[in-house]
Amino acid sequence: MLPNDAVQDEIISINSIFEHGTLSPLDDDATLCSLRLPSLPSVTLRIEFPPDYPNGPPSILGTQTVGQEVQKGMGSRIVHVVRGVLSRVYNPGEPCVYDLIEEVREAIERVEEQGTVDLHAQSDQSHPIPEEKPSREPHSTANNLGLEPPWTIAPPITEKKSIFLARVASVSSPAQAKQYIAHLLATDKKAARATHNMTAWRIRGPAETSYQDCDDDGETAAGGRMLHLMQLMDVWDVVVVVTRWYGGILLGPDRFRIINTAAREALVLGGFAKDTKDEGKKKGKK
Fold it and tell me: Are 135 and 88 spatial neighbours (Cβ–Cβ below 8 Å)?
């Protein structure tokens, strides 16, 4: 059987986001793989992908390895939790391993926060893990973050299964820019769980002072490129957020072009800059 290209893409993408060997093939056609949980690296699961993945869901067959420090009987309970998470995050036609890993991490954190069991401690006793509950809606702390920011959102850009979405909002201080970003991540679950949320802002303060900053959020140099774009466009008093959901195929340097294109479109839509491309077309017609 020939390797499934979608599974190969998953292996490359997961191992580039997390540590190498997080998702590893166990056979030549990558039908069977091992999945080491980044949130619980002592546990490695055995996962089977169907020939038509991602049109068909993968299956969690059981544990591949369980470290000695993991409580007795915990492996089977973790498998139960992971299967429950998988049933919720899988959507036909969409890669799901990244979402699976992130949801499992949240599930494990909730279990440990509740004090039900310490998943990292060795014990001769077996403790039950509560059945995984549906993910909670955006964090309650959002109630303390003020009103919904006045985002202007550009149309999403899709490139080789990665999705880029840019949004901008008018701000008058660095504190407000940070508040808007925090509000977004607290109330928009999809954005909060995206691969990257790259940000940049430029603000004119009183007495000819100015403020500007950026954050790559794991996409090295992306925030700085967005800030440079804003400088070239001479835009002020605005915060830009470009969210990327990684689709499993590496884009190389093209990703920076797409990030800046998305940011530029949002700035133009928000009225912070003129659409110089349209002006160039008009001039060319004369």
Answer: yes
